[in-house]
Amino acid sequence: MDDFVIETRKLTKTYGDQTAVGKVDLHVRKGRIYGLLGRNGAGKTTIMKMILGLTSITSGEVDVFGQNIKGREKRVYPRIGAIIETPGFYPNLTGTENLEIFAKLRGTASPDAVKNALEIVGLPYKDKKLFSKYSLGMKQRLGIANAILHDPELLILDEPTNGLDPIGIAEVREFIKNLSAMRGKTILISSHILSEIALLADDIGIIDHGVLLEESSMEELKKRNSKYILLQVSDVSKAALILERGFHVKDYSVQDDQTLRLYDTSLDMAAVNKALVVQDVAVISSQLCNDTLEDYFKKITGGEGIA
User: Fold this and answer.
1) What is the pTM of this model?
2) What is the mean pLDDT of the chain?
Protein backbone atom coordinates (compact mmCIF):
# COMPACT_ATOMS: atom_id res chain seq x y z
CA MET A 1 0.00 0.00 0.00
CA ASP A 2 1.30 3.45 -0.95
CA ASP A 3 2.19 5.81 1.88
CA PHE A 4 0.20 8.91 0.95
CA VAL A 5 0.73 12.10 2.95
CA ILE A 6 -2.15 13.76 1.06
CA GLU A 7 -5.03 11.89 -0.51
CA THR A 8 -8.19 13.52 -1.80
CA ARG A 9 -11.34 11.74 -2.89
CA LYS A 10 -13.70 13.45 -5.33
CA LEU A 11 -12.65 16.84 -3.94
CA THR A 12 -15.04 19.45 -5.32
CA LYS A 13 -15.50 23.21 -5.01
CA THR A 14 -18.40 25.06 -6.61
CA TYR A 15 -19.39 28.72 -6.60
CA GLY A 16 -23.06 28.84 -7.47
CA ASP A 17 -23.39 26.92 -10.73
CA GLN A 18 -19.65 27.28 -11.52
CA THR A 19 -17.35 24.35 -10.73
CA ALA A 20 -13.85 25.53 -9.80
CA VAL A 21 -12.59 22.05 -8.85
CA GLY A 22 -14.39 18.89 -9.91
CA LYS A 23 -14.02 15.46 -8.23
CA VAL A 24 -10.23 15.56 -7.88
CA ASP A 25 -8.42 12.44 -6.61
CA LEU A 26 -4.92 13.57 -5.62
CA HIS A 27 -2.19 11.26 -4.25
CA VAL A 28 0.94 12.85 -2.73
CA ARG A 29 3.48 10.28 -1.59
CA LYS A 30 5.72 10.63 1.45
CA GLY A 31 9.15 12.21 0.93
CA ARG A 32 8.46 13.23 -2.67
CA ILE A 33 7.86 16.49 -4.53
CA TYR A 34 4.45 16.52 -6.21
CA GLY A 35 4.01 19.15 -8.92
CA LEU A 36 0.47 20.35 -9.58
CA LEU A 37 0.66 21.78 -13.10
CA GLY A 38 -1.94 23.88 -14.87
CA ARG A 39 -2.68 27.23 -16.39
CA ASN A 40 -3.56 30.21 -14.22
CA GLY A 41 -7.15 29.72 -13.08
CA ALA A 42 -7.05 25.92 -13.52
CA GLY A 43 -7.94 25.29 -9.85
CA LYS A 44 -4.50 24.68 -8.30
CA THR A 45 -4.75 27.32 -5.55
CA THR A 46 -8.33 26.30 -4.73
CA ILE A 47 -7.24 22.68 -4.19
CA MET A 48 -4.45 23.83 -1.86
CA LYS A 49 -6.82 26.11 0.07
CA MET A 50 -9.28 23.27 0.59
CA ILE A 51 -6.51 20.99 1.88
CA LEU A 52 -5.42 23.72 4.30
CA GLY A 53 -8.95 24.62 5.42
CA LEU A 54 -8.69 28.14 3.97
CA THR A 55 -11.79 27.64 1.86
CA SER A 56 -14.73 25.33 2.44
CA ILE A 57 -15.10 22.00 0.65
CA THR A 58 -18.32 21.66 -1.35
CA SER A 59 -18.06 17.87 -1.46
CA GLY A 60 -15.46 15.13 -1.26
CA GLU A 61 -12.81 14.33 1.36
CA VAL A 62 -9.21 15.18 2.23
CA ASP A 63 -6.89 12.86 4.15
CA VAL A 64 -3.58 14.25 5.44
CA PHE A 65 -1.08 11.96 7.20
CA GLY A 66 -3.57 9.11 6.76
CA GLN A 67 -6.47 10.78 8.57
CA ASN A 68 -9.45 12.82 7.48
CA ILE A 69 -8.77 16.48 8.32
CA LYS A 70 -12.36 17.20 9.34
CA GLY A 71 -12.42 17.53 13.12
CA ARG A 72 -8.67 16.91 13.40
CA GLU A 73 -7.43 20.32 12.22
CA LYS A 74 -5.60 21.17 15.47
CA ARG A 75 -3.58 17.97 15.26
CA VAL A 76 -2.90 18.01 11.51
CA TYR A 77 -2.21 21.63 10.57
CA PRO A 78 0.77 22.19 12.95
CA ARG A 79 2.58 19.52 10.91
CA ILE A 80 2.17 21.55 7.68
CA GLY A 81 4.00 24.62 6.37
CA ALA A 82 2.48 26.62 3.53
CA ILE A 83 2.70 29.58 1.19
CA ILE A 84 -0.56 30.41 -0.52
CA GLU A 85 -0.48 33.34 -2.93
CA THR A 86 1.72 36.26 -1.78
CA PRO A 87 3.41 35.86 1.65
CA GLY A 88 2.41 38.72 4.00
CA PHE A 89 5.07 40.40 6.13
CA TYR A 90 5.55 43.71 7.96
CA PRO A 91 7.36 46.02 5.49
CA ASN A 92 8.98 48.16 8.23
CA LEU A 93 10.68 45.17 9.93
CA THR A 94 13.68 43.07 8.93
CA GLY A 95 13.36 39.47 7.81
CA THR A 96 14.62 38.24 11.18
CA GLU A 97 12.18 40.47 13.09
CA ASN A 98 9.28 39.25 10.94
CA LEU A 99 10.13 35.61 11.55
CA GLU A 100 10.58 36.18 15.29
CA ILE A 101 7.01 37.50 15.45
CA PHE A 102 5.65 34.51 13.52
CA ALA A 103 7.68 32.11 15.70
CA LYS A 104 6.07 33.58 18.83
CA LEU A 105 2.58 33.46 17.31
CA ARG A 106 3.08 29.85 16.24
CA GLY A 107 4.75 28.81 19.48
CA THR A 108 7.79 27.37 17.65
CA ALA A 109 9.77 25.47 20.28
CA SER A 110 13.38 25.62 19.02
CA PRO A 111 15.31 28.74 20.16
CA ASP A 112 17.32 28.58 16.91
CA ALA A 113 14.26 28.17 14.67
CA VAL A 114 14.52 31.61 13.02
CA LYS A 115 18.27 31.36 12.46
CA ASN A 116 18.00 27.83 11.06
CA ALA A 117 15.13 28.70 8.70
CA LEU A 118 16.98 31.72 7.30
CA GLU A 119 20.12 29.65 6.87
CA ILE A 120 18.24 26.99 4.89
CA VAL A 121 16.87 29.54 2.40
CA GLY A 122 20.13 31.51 2.20
CA LEU A 123 19.05 34.74 3.90
CA PRO A 124 21.16 36.57 6.51
CA TYR A 125 20.29 36.41 10.21
CA LYS A 126 19.89 39.68 12.15
CA ASP A 127 20.80 41.97 9.24
CA LYS A 128 19.40 45.52 9.06
CA LYS A 129 17.63 45.33 5.69
CA LEU A 130 13.90 45.99 5.91
CA PHE A 131 11.42 43.70 4.19
CA SER A 132 10.23 46.65 2.07
CA LYS A 133 13.72 46.77 0.52
CA TYR A 134 13.81 43.06 -0.31
CA SER A 135 13.89 41.91 -3.91
CA LEU A 136 11.06 39.64 -5.07
CA GLY A 137 13.36 36.62 -4.80
CA MET A 138 14.28 37.50 -1.20
CA LYS A 139 10.58 37.93 -0.36
CA GLN A 140 9.81 34.48 -1.76
CA ARG A 141 12.69 32.98 0.23
CA LEU A 142 11.46 34.62 3.42
CA GLY A 143 8.02 33.17 2.71
CA ILE A 144 9.51 29.68 2.49
CA ALA A 145 11.60 30.34 5.63
CA ASN A 146 8.36 31.20 7.45
CA ALA A 147 6.72 28.03 6.11
CA ILE A 148 9.54 25.81 7.44
CA LEU A 149 10.02 27.71 10.73
CA HIS A 150 8.37 24.98 12.82
CA ASP A 151 10.11 22.13 10.91
CA PRO A 152 6.92 20.76 9.31
CA GLU A 153 6.71 17.33 7.70
CA LEU A 154 4.66 18.62 4.76
CA LEU A 155 5.10 21.79 2.70
CA ILE A 156 2.41 23.24 0.43
CA LEU A 157 3.85 25.90 -1.87
CA ASP A 158 1.63 27.83 -4.29
CA GLU A 159 3.68 29.13 -7.26
CA PRO A 160 6.84 29.79 -5.17
CA THR A 161 8.90 30.87 -8.23
CA ASN A 162 6.23 33.18 -9.64
CA GLY A 163 7.69 36.46 -10.88
CA LEU A 164 11.32 35.55 -10.19
CA ASP A 165 14.16 36.07 -12.63
CA PRO A 166 16.00 32.96 -13.96
CA ILE A 167 18.67 33.12 -11.22
CA GLY A 168 16.04 33.47 -8.49
CA ILE A 169 14.05 30.57 -9.96
CA ALA A 170 17.15 28.34 -10.00
CA GLU A 171 17.99 29.23 -6.38
CA VAL A 172 14.45 28.59 -5.10
CA ARG A 173 14.31 25.34 -7.07
CA GLU A 174 17.59 24.17 -5.54
CA PHE A 175 16.61 24.61 -1.92
CA ILE A 176 13.13 23.14 -2.50
CA LYS A 177 14.87 20.03 -3.90
CA ASN A 178 17.22 20.00 -0.90
CA LEU A 179 14.31 20.23 1.54
CA SER A 180 12.97 17.00 0.06
CA ALA A 181 16.24 15.14 -0.62
CA MET A 182 18.26 16.19 2.46
CA ARG A 183 15.54 16.84 5.04
CA GLY A 184 12.89 14.33 3.98
CA LYS A 185 10.08 16.85 3.51
CA THR A 186 7.02 15.96 1.47
CA ILE A 187 6.24 18.89 -0.84
CA LEU A 188 3.13 19.79 -2.84
CA ILE A 189 4.02 22.59 -5.25
CA SER A 190 1.93 24.30 -7.92
CA SER A 191 3.10 25.99 -11.09
CA HIS A 192 1.97 27.02 -14.55
CA ILE A 193 5.54 26.64 -15.86
CA LEU A 194 6.08 23.21 -17.41
CA SER A 195 9.88 23.45 -17.54
CA GLU A 196 10.08 24.20 -13.81
CA ILE A 197 7.88 21.30 -12.77
CA ALA A 198 9.84 18.99 -15.10
CA LEU A 199 13.10 19.95 -13.34
CA LEU A 200 11.71 19.83 -9.81
CA ALA A 201 8.95 17.27 -9.32
CA ASP A 202 9.11 13.53 -8.66
CA ASP A 203 5.39 13.15 -9.41
CA ILE A 204 3.01 15.30 -11.37
CA GLY A 205 -0.69 16.05 -11.57
CA ILE A 206 -2.01 17.88 -14.63
CA ILE A 207 -5.08 20.01 -13.94
CA ASP A 208 -7.21 21.89 -16.44
CA HIS A 209 -10.50 23.68 -15.80
CA GLY A 210 -10.70 22.15 -12.33
CA VAL A 211 -10.29 18.57 -13.57
CA LEU A 212 -7.26 16.39 -12.80
CA LEU A 213 -6.44 14.96 -16.22
CA GLU A 214 -3.54 12.76 -15.22
CA GLU A 215 -1.29 11.68 -12.36
CA SER A 216 2.08 10.12 -13.07
CA SER A 217 5.67 9.95 -11.89
CA MET A 218 7.85 12.41 -13.80
CA GLU A 219 10.14 9.52 -14.73
CA GLU A 220 7.29 7.63 -16.36
CA LEU A 221 5.97 10.75 -18.08
CA LYS A 222 9.36 11.61 -19.54
CA LYS A 223 9.79 8.03 -20.65
CA ARG A 224 6.45 8.04 -22.42
CA ASN A 225 7.26 11.35 -24.09
CA SER A 226 10.71 10.90 -25.52
CA LYS A 227 12.20 8.97 -28.44
CA TYR A 228 10.57 5.60 -28.99
CA ILE A 229 9.65 3.18 -31.75
CA LEU A 230 5.91 2.87 -32.33
CA LEU A 231 5.22 -0.64 -33.56
CA GLN A 232 1.78 -1.70 -34.82
CA VAL A 233 1.24 -5.43 -35.25
CA SER A 234 -1.53 -7.96 -35.73
CA ASP A 235 -0.85 -9.76 -32.44
CA VAL A 236 0.63 -7.76 -29.55
CA SER A 237 1.05 -10.68 -27.14
CA LYS A 238 2.93 -12.79 -29.66
CA ALA A 239 5.05 -9.82 -30.77
CA ALA A 240 6.02 -9.05 -27.14
CA LEU A 241 7.10 -12.66 -26.64
CA ILE A 242 9.26 -12.59 -29.81
CA LEU A 243 10.84 -9.28 -28.75
CA GLU A 244 11.63 -10.56 -25.26
CA ARG A 245 13.01 -13.96 -26.30
CA GLY A 246 14.65 -13.12 -29.61
CA PHE A 247 15.92 -9.59 -28.95
CA HIS A 248 16.06 -9.42 -25.13
CA VAL A 249 13.75 -6.39 -25.16
CA LYS A 250 12.47 -5.50 -21.68
CA ASP A 251 11.90 -1.75 -21.95
CA TYR A 252 8.58 -1.52 -23.75
CA SER A 253 4.91 -0.80 -23.08
CA VAL A 254 1.67 -2.09 -24.59
CA GLN A 255 -0.58 0.77 -25.74
CA ASP A 256 -3.52 -1.24 -27.05
CA ASP A 257 -4.24 -4.61 -28.72
CA GLN A 258 -2.23 -3.63 -31.81
CA THR A 259 0.39 -1.16 -30.58
CA LEU A 260 3.69 -1.37 -28.70
CA ARG A 261 6.14 1.33 -27.69
CA LEU A 262 9.79 0.25 -27.73
CA TYR A 263 12.05 2.60 -25.78
CA ASP A 264 15.33 1.12 -27.04
CA THR A 265 15.71 3.07 -30.29
CA SER A 266 18.96 1.27 -31.17
CA LEU A 267 17.07 -1.91 -32.10
CA ASP A 268 17.66 -3.31 -35.58
CA MET A 269 14.09 -2.89 -36.77
CA ALA A 270 14.73 -4.66 -40.09
CA ALA A 271 15.66 -7.79 -38.12
CA VAL A 272 12.72 -7.30 -35.73
CA ASN A 273 10.24 -6.92 -38.59
CA LYS A 274 11.63 -9.99 -40.36
CA ALA A 275 11.40 -12.12 -37.17
CA LEU A 276 7.81 -11.03 -36.60
CA VAL A 277 6.72 -11.79 -40.18
CA VAL A 278 8.47 -15.19 -40.18
CA GLN A 279 6.49 -16.12 -37.06
CA ASP A 280 3.15 -15.04 -38.56
CA VAL A 281 2.86 -11.63 -36.90
CA ALA A 282 1.91 -9.00 -39.47
CA VAL A 283 3.71 -5.66 -39.11
CA ILE A 284 1.20 -2.88 -39.84
CA SER A 285 3.66 -0.03 -39.25
CA SER A 286 6.96 0.78 -37.56
CA GLN A 287 8.12 4.34 -36.97
CA LEU A 288 10.49 6.39 -34.82
CA CYS A 289 8.66 9.02 -32.76
CA ASN A 290 10.02 11.91 -30.71
CA ASP A 291 7.24 13.41 -28.58
CA THR A 292 8.09 16.20 -26.14
CA LEU A 293 6.44 16.88 -22.78
CA GLU A 294 5.09 20.12 -24.23
CA ASP A 295 3.45 18.20 -27.10
CA TYR A 296 1.86 15.90 -24.56
CA PHE A 297 0.45 18.70 -22.39
CA LYS A 298 -0.97 20.44 -25.44
CA LYS A 299 -2.60 17.21 -26.51
CA ILE A 300 -4.29 16.34 -23.21
CA THR A 301 -5.33 19.90 -22.28
CA GLY A 302 -6.59 20.50 -25.81
CA GLY A 303 -5.08 23.96 -25.98
CA GLU A 304 -1.99 26.03 -26.54
CA GLY A 305 -0.03 24.27 -23.85
CA ILE A 306 1.68 25.56 -20.73
CA ALA A 307 4.64 27.92 -20.56
Assistant:
1) 0.77
2) 90
